[in-house]
Amino acid sequence: MEKNTQTWALPRQAMPEQDPQVRRANFREVPLGYSDRAAVMEAKRCLQCKKPSCVQGCPVEVDIPGFIRQIAQSDFDEATRIIWRTNSLPAVCGRVCPQEIQCEGACILAKRGGEAVAIGNLERFVADRAREAQMQDLPEVAEPTGKKVAVVGSGPSGLTVAGDLVVRGHEVTVFEAFHKPGGVLVYGIPEFRLPKGIVSSEVAMLERLGVRIACNQVVGRTVLVDELFEQGFDAVYIGVGAGLPTFLNIPGENLIGILSANEYLTRANLMKAYLFPEYDTPIARGRDVVVLGAGNVAMDAARTALRLGAETVRIVYRRSRTEMPARAAEIHHAEQEGVEMFLLSNPVRFCGDEQGRLTGMDCIRMELGEPDASGRRRPVPVQGSEFHLDCDLAIVAVGAGANPLLTGSTEGLKLNRWGYIVIDEESGKTSRRGVWAGGDIVTGAATVILAMGAGRIAANSMHTYLTLGW
Fold first, then answer.
1. What is the CA radius of gyration of the chain?
2. Residue 1 banded pLDDT, cuts 50, 70, 90
């Protein structure tokens, strides 16, 4: 590609979006995608570095300069093939990965004082264009090895393992507890941020490669890991995520109208409760809603509550804006849509009426002290600063823990003190022979792309084991 300094100086191509006042009343996707022209213009901003630090910032090591070069030349099909070599979920990653702290955060253009190349937007553009064109190209699949692999969980790490191993000739079956595959991609992330049709399309490609998806299979209950080996599987990957809700343990938490974000979003997303009664899963609706926490899950819950008709939605967070763990884009979108931020505020008790229904929440102002174990400044209560917030629905989004259903039924699996699986970080191996693990069940709640990176590491190790031994 011919280098053009004037092209590099072009501003980053903005992606068009739904108007905030329109989108807050619907569940359609917010960003609308690039046109061919915008994608080519953005791709031409890439410096095509000899030592691309953006690749080092990608947990699955996509050849970023390679696929962007092809976009700049309008060879969109070849750009797709390059991405598919290392990433089986590009339409997902282009939408939900925190590129600003990974690939785009390492972009040399940004370090030279410009705006980072919109790598995530370009990845999404390529994946969407391939899907809309019904591109049938598939990665080449090796000759069958005769080895069988069970992948427990169809979230991002499990799907990555499945895709990596099936193209190497292994027979792969993915076991999913819910009635649809996708894990957190379908039960956790709302339609307006990641449409379910996108996930199903990515899964369908894996199925075309030969991956078998077995839904409604709760490993640890309907079938045990030991039984998977008895059924002839040669290796097992555990990627069940961290789906055990965490609560605040403050007075009044058992009042009617207090939900975990896990339950709230699962009902709205996977079970389409926002379409009740067309879909027969009801969901709690509030007029004055508070969401406790400030991560991506909290933003998803707050924006969902708006779309379900709430008059006011408030994020209550005990630290300042600087410490908010949500992506900047998600915070921006939430505020555009009318979500209020109550920062440096911490709930101390929930209040209810005679029927046991939530009516409000007592809070206290906080100030930031010295950094804690997380590296963020520790919030300290300000004495005498109590205040009250009226609310009839509270959604708790302060993290999730390790569900013990599978780990508690699998002997020989070493866990840490929080119940997460202990692995060898260089291989994903657990303490039990033939069993690997990765994603949130190892790290606690993290990002989609980090889970995929863990899946990539485990898949490489599993392939070695299946061909050469432990």
1. 23
2. very low
